[in-house]
Amino acid sequence: MVFFENSVFFGVLLSLFTYGIGCLMKAKLKLPIFNPLLISILLSVLILVVFRIDYSTYYEGAKYLSYLLTPATICLAVPLYEQMELLKKNWKAIFGGIFAGVLTSLGIILVMAFLFKFSHEEYVTFLPKSITTAIGMGVSEELGGYVSITVAIIIITGVVGNICADTVCKVFKITNPVAKGIGIGTASHAIGTAKAMEMGDVEGAMSSLSIVVSGVLTVVAASVFAQFL
Questions:
Q1: For 174, what's the count of Cα atoms within 13 Å in the CB-facing half-sphere?
Q2: Mean pLDDT value across the chain
Q3: Which of 16, 91, 125, 199 has the fewest CB atoms nearer than 10 Å to its CB?
Q4: If DSSP codes are grouped into helix, strand and coil, which group holds residue 36?
Q5: What is the torsional sign of CA 198, 189, 184, 122?
Q6: How far, in Å, CA of 84 to CA of 61, rounded?
Q7: Which value, to the nearest 10 degrees, does the dihedral of the CA atoms of residues 187, 191, 192, 198 take?
Q8: pLDDT tens string 100-118
Q9: DSSP label at residue 226
Q10: Nearest to 153 by CA among 136, 135, 138
């Protein structure tokens, strides 16, 4: 324990090591369920539990990774810039799709809140589930939700979106690359966008745009939906 407590970058090294294992497993087994982020989370939790390492000790080093979250999100503007002509040509359909996706996400949470009798705090904790963590944390805190739970929900939403994106597109016969990107980015933010980029440049660019626009729309719309319960 003394060694771990004195190792400033222990959390970073553990996170990178487990993520690397996840990448190797996905490359080897080629199954969507072996998502590198999901594998990294599970392995990190397992190691902390087995060696009885406090989360605070792990976070002392791992927190440095979170500093990269905002610049990494901003970098998603690069593929969008490369597809600017496509955006100009289809802007009505693109922004209409993102708007519909945001309303659907918030509407489903409202219905769930009534069905499962959420308290107001629990309800607003779930509202920013489909936007990037950097924005979702602020929304949850502002509305009075449980920020740590919001972060977990956002990550779970992204991982599920990343895993299920291909299957959903095949089941519903979604073949248009713009539609794929908009759907994935609006529903599962940056983690889903990683999958969209694997599908193609257009999918990645549209998904990147969706992260930004859906984030802004959710900030506004979540404040309105928060009044419903």
A1: 17
A2: 88
A3: 91
A4: helix
A5: positive
A6: 39
A7: 170
A8: 999 999 999 999 999 999 9
A9: G
A10: 136
